[in-house]
């Protein structure tokens, strides 16, 4: 299982750099992924403050990633509660 960092999740969600986005997609497609809650928290901050995304859009994006069959969230119940 591979733990990803904030850069990986942000690249996957915002597609702001085609090369890095392609690498992030390849990582998520290649093997089981562990998504630490600290990465979720930091990625939310980056998406909100650096990219100006609305909370609803961020939550929807995180739900989509968390719903991937090969993604495991740290403290899944707590993250789901926070997204709600």
Describe this structure in words.
- The protein has 84 residues and is mainly α.
- It has one domain (2-83).
- The protein has five helices and three strands.
- Strands 1-2-3 form a three-stranded parallel beta sheet.
- Helix 1 (6-14) packs across helix 3 (37-50).
- The longest helix is centred in the middle third of the chain and has 14 residues, at 37-50.
- The mean pLDDT is 90.
Unreliable runs, pLDDT <50, ≥5 residues? none
Distance between the termini: 27 Å
Class from secondary-structure proportions: mainly alpha
Largest sheet features: 3 strands, parallel
Count the domains: 1
Structural descriptors:
single chain, 84 residues, mainly alpha, three-stranded parallel β-sheet, 5 helices, 3 strands, globular
Short description:
With about 80 residues, the chain is mainly alpha-helical. Helices cover about 65% and strands about 10% of the residues. The chain is globular.
Strand and helix map with partners:
Layout: E1 2-3, H1 6-14, H2 18-30, E2 33-35, H3 37-50, H4 55-66, E3 71-73, H5 76-83
Parallel strand pairs: 1-2, 2-3
Helix pairs in contact: 1-2, 1-3
